[in-house]
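FW: tagging you since you asked about this chain on Friday. Here's the raw sequence from the shared folder, copied in full. Didn't touch anything.
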Amino acid sequence: MISRMNRMNPAPGSKNLDYFKGAYRHYKTYILVPGVLSSDDSSVKLIPELGIFKSTIHFRQASDIDPKQDPDAPVLEMGTAKRPLTPYGQRQAADGKRRGKHSRRRRGNKKKKNKKKK
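HL: got it, structure written out here
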């Protein structure tokens, strides 16, 4: 199975997500269209002939995602933007259990060195 998740963090005052949601409510469909950025990142050349017609999308609040059982949980740690903790993250931080993404310890995952028998 192939899946794509995108966490939306619109800039304050941005209307793009609102426009997209309004158009989706009206038409009940959308098209994912790939594009190529110019070398200076100033423009995008769309490639509509490679577009994918879609009729389903799920908009969810991060606070509605259960980090232990929800298949959308990986999106909670996407990107490098500083985000407020979800209620689950707040509880973990209060309990002193949240160390951050890069400081997690993996248990039982150590590679054993093979010793040659003589």
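FW: Strands lie at 30-32, 35-37, 44-46, 52-54.
HL: agreed, and The mean pLDDT is 75.
FW: great, closing this out.
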